[in-house]
Design a protein that fits this description.
two-stranded antiparallel sheet, 40% helix, 18% strand, 6 helices, 210 residues, alpha/beta, Glutaredoxin
């Protein structure tokens, strides 16, 4: 069992690295904008983010306008994720707490890419375990796929027995920095610390006058 877990984690890390290299090279193309000083040398732009329609923990259908009401950190993952998703979501929650200390209200957002198992109740409990401000979202396969495509994320179900309830998902692991009425402004990787994420989002929020 331990060997299987190690192999699974290695698979997720490899997929994340490959997808990350693809995105950094081909998706996040340089673009002139008012936030260039906030990127710290990173490049961003392209057609990233945009409208989505998903289901929140209360079972209500919500749109991006309902969810992105403060500077936000958006992450795509799944609640059965053994290691990567919990670590990333904890980092994002810590960044939100750092921002609160600086007088900035921010919101961590978790979007499930496993709607077959992640019901509204499950994503709600998952999100609450990390932060009382974290918004957990799920939806139909079509809704999730549309949101994923909007943010250019990757996900796929790992091979397993058809009736295996413990299957895992491969997925990209970027966190997206999003501002209300503006949308996606940049992304952060798994290597970025809570302080780095907070610094970046604070810079964007202040540049936008939020």
């Amino acid at each position: 069992m331990q060997d299987r877990t190690i192999a699974i984690l290695a698979s997720v890390i490899v997929v994340s690295a490959v997808v990350g290299a693809f995105f950094a090279k081909d998706v996040f193309a340089p673009a002139g904008d008012a936030f260039s000083d906030c990127r710290g040398g990173a490049v961003a732009g392209g057609d990233i983010g945009g409208p989505f329609e998903l289901v929140n923990a209360a079972g209500q259908t919500v749109t991006d306008k309902d969810v992105i009401t403060t500077p936000s950190i958006v992450y795509f993952g799944f609640t059965f994720c053994p290691d990567v998703c919990p670590l990333d979501n904890m980092r994002n929650a810590q960044a939100v707490d750092i921002l609160k200390e600086r007088g900035i209200t921010a919101t961590p957002v978790f979007i499930s890419i496993d709607p077959a198992r992640d019901t509204p109740e499950i994503v709600g409990k998952f999100a609450m375990n990390f932060h009382d401000r974290m918004i957990g979202l799920t939806g139909s396969p079509q809704q999730v796929d549309a949101a994923s495509k909007a943010y250019r994320t990757f996900y796929s179900k790992q091979e397993s027995e058809a009736d295996d309830p413990y299957y895992l998902m491969n997925h990209s692991t970027f966190s997206y920095l999003v501002l209300p009425d503006i949308g996606f402004v940049d992304f952060v990787g798994r290597e970025d610390t809570p302080e780095v994420v907070a610094d970046r989002l604070e810079c964007f929020a202040k540049a936008a006058g939020i």
